[in-house]
Amino acid sequence: MDRLTQWFSQIDWDKFWLDMISKGISILILLILYFVLSWIGRKLIRGFFRRYRTQQMVSENRANTLESLILNLFGYVMFFTFAMLILQNFINVTAIIAGAGVASLAIAFGAQGLVSDVVTGFFILLERQLDVGDSITLEQVNGNVEALGLRTTQVRDFDGTLHFIPNRQIMIVSNHSRGNMRFLVDVRIAPTADAEKAMEIIKRACEQEKATNKNIVDGPTVLGVQEVSATNTVIRVMGKAVNGEQFEVQRNLLKDIREELVANQIELPLSYLAPLEPGK
């Protein structure tokens, strides 16, 4: 207790509080600078990419990817720079870094995952495996790429879940946003209906749809009878559509085909639940 009292009595409290106030003001100024420069930097980067999109022959997804990466990199640089400046108020950061020795080796081993993430992310960008907005499959994750950073890739699942995936864990990428996409439409008619007549009607409906739908790039082609069962006959139609529009093309084509079949009195299969008999 006497030693503690003696230690406190040796402190120059006026100098201590003056030093704390000085450091507090310095940290406050650094924090204000950090937020102001971060805001200005992000605004300039976004402004540059707005002009870049209009002046350069580059896809929207590619421009979004590069913008996301630059913003990500800018954020890391700003954070670590100002973190070092704030720490410099309390400790000699330069001396610690210079004399780290074994500690730096331990940090290097611990940062292997981070380095692997950054290197993998670099090659993903270099090889253009992914772009922001692409529809992809990464093993068990299906969705659209929302952000592509140096360390992680963010994928929004179709149910709204946002997945954060470390870049080093990306082994196999299935990108559904490159090139035109195939669509299939299976048309079901009653097993007693005239399949040949139905195919002629379906063919006419396909020709009409192709003439009015600019998203169809190939076909639609009536392949013929795909399946025959006691309840229905399946006639398959196949074609190619502009990437991302294939599902809408499928829905519109199926609706138009059904309307044409009904208008030409082609019987469609009935699905119903048989009523239960009393006592069962």
Number of helices: 8
Question: Structural class given helices, strands, pairing?
Answer: alpha+beta
| Proportion of residues in β-strands | 15-25%
Helical content (DSSP H or I, runs of 4+): 40-55%
End-to-end Cα distance, whole Å, is 89 Å
Name of the CATH first level of the largest domain: Mainly Alpha
Oligomer: single chain
Give Rg in angstroms: 32 Å
Order of the strands making up the biggest sheet: 4-3-2-1-5
Flag low-confidence runs.
272-280
The CATH topology of the largest domain corresponds to Helix Hairpins
How many strand elements? 8
What coarse outline follows from CA principal-axis ratios? elongated
Instruction: Give the ordered list of helices and strands.
Output: HHHHHHEEEEEEHEEH
Largest sheet: 5 strands, antiparallel
Total count of domains: 3
- Name given to the CATH architecture of the largest domain: Orthogonal Bundle
Q: Indicate the mean pLDDT.
A: 76
Subcellular location: Cell membrane
GO molecular function, one term: mechanosensitive monoatomic ion channel activity
Keywords: Cell membrane, Membrane, Transmembrane, Transmembrane helix
Family: Belongs to the MscS (TC 1.A.23) family.
